[in-house]
Amino acid sequence: MRTSNKVIITCAVTGSIHTPSMSPHLPITPEEIAQEAIAATQAGAAMVHLHARDPQTGLPKQDPALFAQFLPTIKAQTDAIVNITTGGGLGMTLEERLAPAKAAQPEVASMNMGSFNFNISGAAAKIEQFKFDWEKPYLDMTKDFILSNTFGQIERGVSELSAMGTRFEFECYDVGHLYNVAHFADRGLIKPPFFLQCIFGILGGIGPHQENLLHMRAIADKLFGDDYYLSVLAAGKHQMPFVTMSALLGGNVRVGLEDSLYLSKGRLATSNADQVTKIRTILEELSLEIATPGEARAMLQTKGKDNVNF
Q1: Which of 43, 106, 141, 174 has the smallest count of CB within 10 Å of its CB?
Q2: Among residues 252, 254, 272, 275, which one has the least CA distance to residue 263?
């Protein structure tokens, strides 16, 4: 694993998992997404991971026109690395998922590295009344949902986006996904340094136990040696403990309302910047330094903010 005395903080601003009824602070409109991303950067995030939503209902949408309403604002008002999802929303086609990144040609795009059961239906039971009709069916259908990321789909995604100079946040929800990254590396379709985002606590993926983080790092060390940077995110209440552990192991961190709606037990985060500020404070108290966007670019070898298409 490549280590640095600088920790990259990524902020995932809205995602496609949480629904508007779960928190009044979840950004929905392009204006809200831009404001949240800018504030997160000001709080210390070097990278912002971005989804879009229908501004009227909050339904996850991969319409490039929606992304075009907030990407230029974020670029103009921050130096952050923009990282665009190719995961999109649950049940979208590959064409829909890839469309915003292909249009915007960002420095970084996410890439899910394997198919697996993805169950968030339990969240529906916690909500007494939904604001919008789409929310409960969207959550309930995941009892029978497989998040599809076949080898053919991954190959298409990495090939088309690599041709634009885009680098990747490789999202690994289980140990086998690390081996899938190695498969594409062995074929020469992706190039180091690899930014491996290990994800814990999604029902269907690897569980939120600290031993699993150590195991994921150990396997990544065997597969990639010094050719990768570790980053970690964890769902819900596991967020802060797991990302702190990542940093203590020499890795990087991801926070944001995509991954957890809370700042502490029973206390909703009122903004993405709240979570960035909290993890930055923790890291600095541990004498760890926070990477600037420029330092993160140098680490990840991205093409630079002036070479995007927005």
Answers
A1: 141
A2: 275
